[in-house]
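A favour, since you know our structure tokens better than I do. Would you make up a two-line entry for one protein for me to read? Write everything out right here, beneath this request.
=====
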Amino acid sequence: MYQIPWKTKGIVLTAPQPYKKEVSDVAEFIEKILVPSGVNLIVLQTRYRYRFQRHPECMGYDPLSLEDVQLLLTVCRRNGIRLVPKMNLFSHQSGIHNTPSDGILHGLASGSLDFPDGLLRAYPMFSEPYGDMEFVYSKHLCPTHPLLPSILFDQADELTDAFEADGIHIGCDEAFLIGMCERCRRTPPHILFADYINMLSGHFASRGIETMLWADRLLSRESTGYPGRYEASANGTEKAIDLISKDVLCCDWHYEKYDAYRSVDVFADHGLRMMVSPWKNLENAKAFLDYAAAHDRGHIEGYLQTTWCSSGELARHYLYGAPLEWHNMPEIVRTLNELFLSPDVIGKSIVP
């Protein structure tokens, strides 16, 4: 198990699927596997999968009930774990399921058309337009639509109330479609992005709730050297790093191996707090953690391990030795076993 030098050890889990009766298994997984491993933060990727009383038309498929959330919250509170809901409030408003379904929507770079998540199913007018593109990698919300905040905040407030949360993760990663509509196109992308983030974080701050986000859009692809368009911005949003509230907690995700993870230094230079967020590859995750530890200037809050898989499948594997289904699971489990979990709790885990 990696000995982190920071105060927070967290993990991103997808919300368990009630129709598979996963909620109790995931609660037991938290108590028997995560607690002994020193976890004190769980970010639960919920999106619109909650049984909303306000705007139920936006409810996602297979939603958690209030009682489901309370069961998870009770286990977390009993063990000193901070439970934070994750609700994508800008990008990743659509996707398709993996096969076999692992309980979450993924935006895919190619393939069949993805379908909208709860909010855009009910209110397609909130979507950023995408012209004549047949396939869109994760549809986005339009940041300047005048009616969006009233519905969005109704839902986010109801979700954070249910979680009795002091934090919310708003996503915002891989936001490629910005400034496309008539209202937005004359405003520079970094202004659009910063104004939208500040609107969200200001609202949550007024309720005593910390805002967390994926921070790739605040990074310059050119200056950091991260390739492609996923880990850093190539469309001008990176300049928002000087305009967003310093209270926002930046979750810095990188899944490949690099000689240097320049984003760690960038966030320190700009006075922003961050979390180190690797994924499935053991060697790459260790390289990222080691670089961050060596370059921490007091701005790193902790280690936030991503999983992007079914929390129910993880729970069944660790609790009962159930076989792994999704093709990425063996690599994810190997990294959890080596870096994240206490050796005392992984006895039932057999990685093929």
Observations:
- The CA atoms of residues 128 and 142 lie 5 Å apart.
